[in-house]
Design brief:
The chain has 160 residues and is an all-alpha fold. It has helices at 2-8, 21-43, 62-91, 97-118, 128-148.
């Protein structure tokens, strides 16, 4: 148990990753996806609220729509910060990969369970995030476990 805790919260935060390579490669993809997704919420005119999340902004008052767009823009900023943190982990602090997957799991789990149940957002269709949260819960949990497992040993065959 102590080894698992040390892998999640390493004593030295460095670039020495000790888990399965697949978890590292998937983290690269999630990082790229997070950075790509953030720019939509930051730069699209509606913050992605109606064009992506299918929130019926045209049924809101002007001020209500502006508030939702502003919140989506702030969400894009949060996604950008998380994406940049992921990028820093990719480039310099790979020892933090298990912790990042644990936090990712927590984020997507809460998104998929708490918010729909207690703070639902009315939409006119199915938002991609509503569909994508569940696979990311599973992926982040599997990659978390794989990031804790030691890398596979390379098998060297002789040419005899």
């Amino acid at each position: 148990m102590r080894q698992i805790i040390i892998k999640i919260f390493p004593e030295n935060i460095n670039n020495h990753y000790q888990g399965q390579k697949i978890a590292l490669y998937v983290f690269y993809l999630v990082t790229a996806f997070t950075l790509w997704r953030s720019q939509h919420h930051l730069f699209s005119a509606d913050g992605g609220a109606q064009s992506i999340a299918t929130i019926p902004l045209d049924s809101f008052s002007k001020d209500g729509a502006a508030a939702v767009i502003g919140v989506f823009g702030l969400w894009g900023l949060s996604q950008l910060i998380i994406g940049l943190l992921y990028l820093i982990v990719c480039l310099r602090y790979r020892a933090m990969l298990p912790l990042m997957y644990l936090l990712m799991f927590f984020e997507y789990f809460v998104r998929a369970t708490y918010f729909p149940a207690f703070k639902p957002i009315p939409t006119s269709g199915t938002a991609p995030g509503a569909v994508g949260n569940f696979p990311l819960i599973i992926i982040s949990l599997i990659m978390f476990v794989l990031s804790l497992l030691p890398p596979k040993k390379k098998v060297v065959q002789s040419l005899e």
